[in-house]
Amino acid sequence: LKKVPLFDKLSESQLEPISRIARRRSLSAGSILFQEKDPGNVFYVVLGGSIKLFTRSAGGDEKVLSVVGAGDSFGELALLDGLPRSASARALETSLLLEIASDDFMRLLESHFDITKGILAELSRRLRQTNEHVSDLTFLDDRTRVLKNLINLANQHGKRDGVFINIHLALNYDELSQMAGVSKQILSEVLRELEAKGVLTFGINRYTLNLTKLRG
Ligand code: CMP
Prior knowledge:
Blueprint: H1 12-21, E1 23-27, E2 32-34, E3 42-48, E4 50-56, E5 62-69, E6 73-74, H2 77-81, E7 88-91, E8 95-101, H3 102-111, H4 113-139, H5 142-157, E9 159-161, E10 164-168, H6 173-180, H7 184-196, E11 200-203, E12 206-210, H8 211-215
Antiparallel strand pairs: 1-8, 2-7, 3-6, 3-8, 4-5, 4-7, 9-10, 10-12, 11-12
The structure holds adenosine-3',5'-cyclic-monophosphate.
Adenosine-3',5'-cyclic-monophosphate binds at residues 40, 53, 65-66, 74-78, 85-87, 126, 130.
């Protein structure tokens, strides 16, 4: 628990009751944890793996809002405003979660101001990120949006190896193009262009950025 940023300011004696109320849950790759519009009464912390949070249009197209990994939390909105889940959640790989029931979550917010501040900071971060995404959709060209999305994924999920950053995520071209807000056709054109410039190499579930080439 100490490794989870939301709880890292708490002492061992403060963490002990949390480990008693939290339950571990493992999810197999591809399984759905909940669907958008479901009622929600559980808060989740990711201990391992990665979870895709996404919405669907009336026509069935998906929009990936975020991919969360170890140390991240999600599922707080339905608990805080009492409305249904604002997005669906699917495991991209085998994942381990910590579940905290709504009543226990509320008691934690009441008794630990550091946790409340952590949740507020996370909500603020997401609002900033969403504002940036809206302005990117308005002002950036397609190519820059694809590159920026890769850089965001590298910052959040990448592992540095010398001048390379490796992103291992089970995100297909459909999902990457939705995240960047471009068509699949444009996405594959831009990926090939970046590959030709030596900025990017990619394979199944793997994207590697070359920092030296990226700076150029
Ligand atoms: P909740 O609405 O309970 O269930 C879906 C969860 O997805 C939501 O809580 C948030 O935790 C998370 N979520 C919704 N929108 C975003 C977003 N734009 N960025 C990151 N996470 C989000």
